[in-house]
Write a structure and sequence with these properties.
Belongs to the YicC/YloC family. GO terms for molecular function: hydrolase activity; RNA endonuclease activity. The chain has about 300 residues and is of the alpha+beta class. It has 9 helices and 6 strands. The radius of gyration is 35 Å and the shape is elongated.
Length: about 300
Amino acid sequence: MTQPLASMTGYARASGTAGAVSFTCEMKSVNGRGLDMRMRLAPGLDPIEGEIRRRVGALVARGSLTVTVNIDREGAGGEVVVNQQALKAVLKAMDGLEGKVDARRPSLDGILGLKGVLDQHEKPLDPEEEEALHAALLQCVERCVAGLVEARRREGAQIGAVLARHIDEIERLTRLAETHPSRDRAAVLERLRGQVADLVAAGAGVSEERMAQEALLLATRADIREELDRLVAHIANARQLLAAGGPVGRKLDFLSQEFNREANTLCSKSNAVDLTAIGLDLKAAIDQLREQVQNIE
C-alpha cells in the first residue's frame, strides 16, 4: 500500500480543556537515526507517559522528537496560604533595619506581594476528574501527533520531488557513460596502436599478436558494463522506494551508498578524460541525493 513520503522535521500544537483545567501539547521533531522521544510533562502526568509514548510511536517511525505538555489549573480553584516561615523572616529583617534606613514601613499588601510569602495550593482533583483529565490529554496528544505527521508529510512531498530530480540526473549521466565512445574495444585497440607506434619509432619491437593481447586486457580492465548495470538497477530500486513512500529513509540512505560505490569504480576504470568527468558529475549528483535522503523518515 502506497504511503506518503515524510520528512523528519516538523512542528505541531494542540490544546484543550477538561472541566476548569486547560492544557496544551506541543511536538517538535528534527532529524535522527532512530526514534528518540523526549518528554516534558507537567507534574502529575507520569501515569500517562507510557501511553503518550505508545500513541506517538504508532505514527512516527524516525526522528528526534520533543513532546511538551503544559497544564493550567488556575480555573480549577484552590487556596492561598501564608508561608509563616517566610513572613517571619521578612518581619525580622524589617525589625533589623528599623532606625537604619530612612523609609516608611511597607504596607501589608507590599509584604504579601513578596515572593514566597504567599503559597497557592491547587485544589486536588478527585479520581473521576483526574481520569477525565488524562483522557482529554491523550486525545489532545493524538490531535497534536496527527498535526505533526501532516506537517512532516507536506515537507516530505517537497523533498520527494527533489529526490526524483536527482535520480533523473543520475540516470542521465549513467546513459551518457554507457554510450561514451571510449567503451568501444576498437577505440581501445586504436589507442594501443598509437602507443605501439610510438614505441616502434623509439626502437622497441612489439608483435601484432602481443598488441592484440594487450588491447584485450586493457578493454577488459576498462569494462564498466557491470557498474552500469548495477547503477540502472539502483535507479529502478530508488524510484520504487519513492513510489512506495512511508519510512524508507534508511533504505534510500543505503542505496545512495551503493550508488557512490559504483560511481567510484567507474572513475577508477575510466580510460578517457571525458568518461572520468562523467563519473565525477555522477558522484556529485549522488552526494546531492544522499544529502536530501538524510531528511527522510
